[in-house]
Amino acid sequence: SNWCAPLRKVHSVAWNCDGTRLASGSYDKTVTLWALDAEKLNHEGNYKVHSGSVDQLCWHPSKKDVFSTASADKTVRLWDARSGKVTSTIHTKGENINICWSPDGNNIAVGNKVDLLTFLDVRTSKVKAEEQFKYEVNEISWCHDGDQFFITNGNGCVVILRWPDLKP
Prior knowledge:
It comes from Geodia barretti. The chain has 168 residues and is mainly beta.
């Protein structure tokens, strides 16, 4: 079956940590939330807070009601899914296209269109580190225990860096 909502060009979709909520981010600057109830997906709302496309989103690894969005409007926003409201806005240097949480939930990595990775401390809403790459950064992820950070790049490679020093 299909689950439809008034969206145009969905860029990202993700389930929360316990599989009870689904969120999507779209080109039309919209975040849409659904709740799963007895195997039926119920639309909870559309939220237009960003001034640019919502290119990727991800849920907190252990808090089922917290997620973050990466947008072309040069912001990362933290959300409370229960209220549909933004709890924090962090400004970045470029149009953000990918995002991921650290396994402990304390950090977010966000990549932009010019291959700058910004690492954010969620507890303080501050930039913790930045790393500019000379190659295309496609996807980003921490390993499960959080001591390594993975990057897929435009050269067809997976780059593995230690966290938090970002050394090979």
